[in-house]
Amino acid sequence: MHCPFCRHPDSRVIDSRTSDDGLSIRRRRQCPECGGRFSTVETASLNVVKRSGAVEPFAREKVMSGVRKACQGRPVTDDDLAILAQRVEEELRQTGQSTFETNDIGLAILGPLRDLDEVAYLRFASVYRAFESLDDFEAAIAELRADHRRAPQEE
Questions:
Q1: Phi, psi of 67 (to 5 degrees)
Q2: Contact 68, 49 (CB under 8 A)
Q3: N or C terminus: fewer CB in 10 A for the chain?
Q4: Higher pLDDT residue, 19 or 53?
Q5: Number of C-alpha atoms within 13 angstroms, CB side, residue 109?
Q6: In 3-state terms, what secondary structure has residue 145?
Q7: Residues above pLDDT 70, as percent of the chain
C-alpha cells in the first residue's frame, strides 16, 4: 500500500476493525517514511468469468443494467434495482466462493427479481433458463400462480 502523502511503497497497520456489515475491514495505517496516517478499507473481491474466458471484477452496475432491460415499461425504480443488485452480491458472497460464471450470476438474479416484478422475472428467466417454447413460459407462469395460491395460507 503506497502512502498517499509521500508515495512510499510500504505502510504499517496500526489498527484493524471489521465494518458494521462484516463484509469489509477498516485498517488504520502509518507511513514509516513521513509518519502520515491514513485509512484503508479492504473487501474480498468477487470475480466473474465471462463466456469468452476473460475474468473481471463483479460489478453491481452490470447487474442493474442487465435487469433494467427486463424491467423496461415496468414500475421498477433505480433504487429497486440497486437493492436487487445488493441482494445478489450478498447471496454470492454467502456461498464462500470468489469466482462465478456469468450464468451463475444470472441465476442468482432470478429470486430477487421474482420478488420485485413477476413480468420482469419472466422476461429475464426466458433468457437465463433458456426457454425454447411457449410450454416453458406456461410452466413458469403456472409456478408463479401456484406460489400465489400458497401465499395467503402462509400468512
A1: -75, -30
A2: no
A3: C
A4: 53
A5: 32
A6: helix
A7: 96
